[in-house]
Design brief:
Layout lengths: L1 H26 L4 E11 L13 E3 L15 H9 L3 E7 L2 E10 L1 E3 L6 E3 L5 E9 L8 H15 L4 E7 L3 H9 L3 E11 L2 E6 L5 E4 L7 E3 L3 H12 L1
Parallel strand pairs: 6-12, 7-8
Antiparallel strand pairs: 1-8, 1-9, 2-3, 3-4, 4-7, 5-6, 9-10, 10-11
Length: 234
């Protein structure tokens, strides 16, 4: 028990470890806790970081293209397509090695009731990067990000924003390696139809009890974009 706690503390840090412990305690009372870190990473225009290997990159444009073992509910994926979600998928033959989703403008979260907004046309959301368990030691993650950077750069996108579970140290480390910049956090408590959000950015606190009541978090990337342009010019 002590070893597991120390490992969790080392991976998540003091604050997120405390939230993780609270989430485990509240689960016995039927309360689900979701804590997210929001980050932005620059879209690189440079060369590929991973060799092409045997992976082919092509998007998924319909539910029928996803294999039966893709671990996301079909209704969730259908909702992504309805709100304009795009994808980049890595394929090894006919097998899905990994997939990365992205969206422009605004994105409604899959797990909780919240809407993320990006006013800048030079920014987008990326979310739910899935790598097949058998291929997590390969190049699929880097290949997906390389392809995402290429496509987004061609479209004039300078920053891509992500929400990461604060209880997922592997994802936090992966985003840190690609230069992610912190943009705040939000914690959601859910019990039946009720949801409470506590966030580090406006509206800071939101309580809802209906499926149509969604808080909205707006992320302004313009200061980041100005900083990027200044760095390029210097």
């Amino acid at each position: 028990m002590t070893t597991h706690f120390l490992q969790t503390l080392a991976e998540l840090g003091v604050r997120n470890t405390a939230w993780y412990a609270l989430a485990r305690c509240l689960r016995f009372g039927g309360i689900s806790v979701y804590r997210y870190q929001f980050v932005a990473q620059p879209v690189a225009a440079g060369a590929m970081r991973a060799s092409p290997g045997k992976l082919a990159m092509r998007p998924v444009t319909s539910l029928a293209e996803l294999p039966a073992d893709y671990p996301r509910p079909r209704e969730v994926v259908a909702a992504r397509f309805r709100q304009g979600g795009c994808s980049i998928a890595a394929w090894k033959g006919d097998e899905l090695a990994g997939i990365l989703w992205y969206q422009f403008g605004a994105y409604q979260e899959d797990e909780v009731r919240v809407r993320y907004c990006l006013p800048s046309p030079r920014a987008c959301w990326d979310y739910d990067v899935f790598i097949h368990p058998r291929m997590r030691l390969g190049t699929a993650f880097c290949r997906l990000w390389d392809e995402a950077n290429r496509r987004l750069h061609e479209r004039g996108i300078e920053w891509t924003c992500s929400r990461i579970s604060a209880f997922n140290p592997a994802s936090l480390r992966a985003h840190a390696r690609i230069g992610a910049i912190a943009m705040g956090s939000a914690t959601f408590f859910r019990l039946g139809r009720w949801q409470l959000m506590l966030a580090s950015r406006p509206p800071y606190c939101h309580l809802s009890g209906t499926a149509t009541s969604w808080p909205q978090l707006v992320f302004d990337t313009v200061p980041l974009e100005k900083g990027a342009r200044q760095c390029k010019a210097s």
